[in-house]
Amino acid sequence: MSLLTNYVCAAYPPFHQGYTLNDQSKIAFTAIPPVDLLGAAAQGPDMAKMLTSNRPALAVALKTCAIFLFVVLGALIKATSDQVPPGEAVFFRSFFSFPIIIVWLLARGDLRHGLITRHPMRHFWRGILGTSAMGLTFAGLGMLPLPEVTAIGYATPIFTVILAAIMLNERIRIVRISAVAIGLVGVLIMVWPRLNGSSELEDTATLGAMLILAATLARAFVQIHVRKMVQTDHTAAIVFYFSLTASVLSLMTAPFGWVVPDAYTATLLVMAGLLGGVAQILVTSAYRFGAASMLAPVDYSSMLFAILIGYVWFDELPTLVMMVGASLVVAGNILVVWREHQLGLERGKARSVIDPKS
């Protein structure tokens, strides 16, 4: 995950994206799926060297634990969705993860970086986009099964590739075009059954699917925006100011239906915030011991966790159609990861010829 990804996503994002420095001037996209259900930063130039020790087993364990916590976080939000509006849930998620992030940045000596920014308005717009994505996701969680929310969220890397081509003029050739096509077919397969609803229950699920799709697209815009931010601001600043802006922006929704939760609901919401902070730290730590390309496939364990938790807690089971669509989206994401890995190797070889280390 990128804040969940490397300072990790948090967004939820049922999920996340990552960035790797392929050469000295270009940050390339690496598809790292969604567990961000919750608000993402990314590793930028200052994080490109964060791999301090190659310990793949530890990296995988840390990433897997983080993904599990993010799915549990989504389940906690889903369990409170009947009592608490999405804006209030976003506040609890953001505000109660803030202290954990602050303590962690202090312990790492990065807090001073978190307070320095050259472009405060970029953080504001990143906060608007990220908070919107989180709110849309939390709203959708109350309308759809947990595995389905997770599966649709996997489309974020696909949308990010499309937006990068449109907004950043990145050239995408046959491999990534094929990946996008495969992923979009998968998304269409997953949401198609929701577009034919006739009963009130089916209409609610249709709205839920649209909300999650909108959240996925918003997270893709976040990734594009963060790709610009990491070129000028430390990732600690991206994490710090997102947590701050998400808390403030969500608090502004208080006049629109907030309730005083009972003790049980309040406990679940506070736990969601705390787990989000811990999960962010675990993800960031994972990238210190393993490369992004190696860890990317681990993200898809979120589907296994979502199926298990959805069945045990909410008596939900994924449909065959949903699993087929999710498989295609995952295949498209993996194709993007593979292609970016190949491009990274090619650029590395080119640099070694131009600038031999001997």
Describe it.
It is a single chain. The protein is mostly helical and 358 residues long. The protein has one domain. It has 15 helices and 3 strands. The protein has helices at residues 2-5, 56-80, 86-95, 98-108, 111-114, 120-141, 146-153, 156-167, 174-191, 200-229, 235-251, 263-286, 292-295, 301-314, 320-354; strands at 6-8, 18-21, 27-30. A two-stranded antiparallel sheet has the order 2-3. Strand 2 and strand 3 (27-30) form a beta hairpin. Helix 3 (86-95) crosses helix 6 (120-141), helix 8 packs across helix 10 (200-229) and helix 9 (174-191) packs antiparallel against helix 15. The longest helix has 35 residues, at 320-354. It is globular and about 45 Å long. Mean pLDDT is 80; it is low at 1-51 and 350-358.
